Amino acid sequence: MGEIFAGRYELIDPIGRGGVGMVWRAWDHRRRRYVAAKVLQQSDAHTLLRFVREQALRIDHPHVLAPASWAADDEKVLFTMDLVRGGSLAHLIGDYGPLPPTLVCTLLDQLLSGLAAVHAEDVVHRDIKPANLLLEPTGTGRPHLRLSDFGISMRKDEPRLTETNYVVGTPGYFAPEQMLEAEADFPSDLYAVGLVGLYMLTGRKPDSQELVEQYLNGLPAAPEGVPEPLWQVLGQLLQPDPAARFRTATGTRKALASAAELLDRDATLEQETVEVFDHIGPLPEGFGPDGPLRTTATTADSAATGPAATAGPAPAGSAVAASAPAAESTPVADPAPAGRHTAGPAQAAGGAALAPQPPATGSFPLQPPAPPLNGSGETQAHPYAPDAGDGTRPYTAYQPPGPAPAPGAGQGPVASPLAAAPPTAHAAPTAHAAPTAPPARARKPGPPLKIVVPVLVVALVCLAAGVWALSVAG
Predict the structure, then answer these.
(1) Hey, where are the domains in the chain?
(2) Which pLDDT does position 339 carry in this prediction?
(3) Max alpha carbon distance in the chain (Å)?
């Protein structure tokens, strides 16, 4: 399994590299979803300040991929964002070359929509390029572009992080004024948008220095493969003079929508269909669509492991091992409380009858009662005796005992009158009731008289003193 960062983010596998660190596919154990985590590689003050600026940006827009949360663990820090799986615009151009003009219009419109939200927060991106424009894996359907990587972005009122004579950004996508060390502004981002649009239509990375030279005599002709309506928009975005460009991303979107209506739809349909597929790849072993598989395995093991499983295997030949199935647990009856007589012989788990045990009544066992005798001294048949084996049980009426024989007459053992008494309907013949203690005398409620009388006297004295005080006050 991957390394767990700050007790929440489990780093799975690297999926890319950003301006200040490595980007990992990670599992968020709190939100229960996969995210992209950028781990800071350096820890110097300059890099940390850039990191803080990037993670502090919070823009909720469908075409902006801004940081969602951050965490720190020892000397490492990271921030997370949505996991976008369709690769970048650079990958798409590398796979298909020049893109159809209608697709380019759609992608540029989404880019400008996200850029308008960024500019509304008074933030200049300063690093717009195909590698920072990520795509959702939409297949052959409508694409979904997201502007990412705000590592060198800055608010217009914040101080610069770079030294003099040092330009921040990606070579080839600098605006001319940035090369002259001017402060980057919204038109600088729009110039980079024009370069990206030209790259999508031609399939070749444009040379910004060569473009500046072409504008010495005004707007040059449309490059090969660029429709004239789109060149009217891109050509104005690529003006060397910032004042000659579109001023806002929203204004550029309006001009782009008008140009898209003038495109030749038939020529566009003849071009190759573009598919945006998954570029990240399958999850490594140990992970599934719902997260790490060990969570599911632990749950299954806990459900299968019960008291019977933890007790260990039963000895070979034991009654429990012979009678209880392996996948089921046999409920065990509670032991009979002390002093209670259980009817019938005890049965072992294997079905063999055990020897009858005397009922436990106190600290010593009682002897079983003697059978009743009739008048002639013979044993009298018990009215609850078992049947004779033929399905019937003879009924024997109760015979009162006769006069006691004289001692030494040889009539056999003399039975106790308690043993000769017939069984009643309130108790079983073999049951023996324990002696009960006499009921305690009921006590009358209330306190005793030796407490009640003094209290009443004190109350009467207080009442009298109160009446006297009221009469005096009146």
Answers:
(1) 1-83, 87-159+168-276
(2) 42
(3) 154
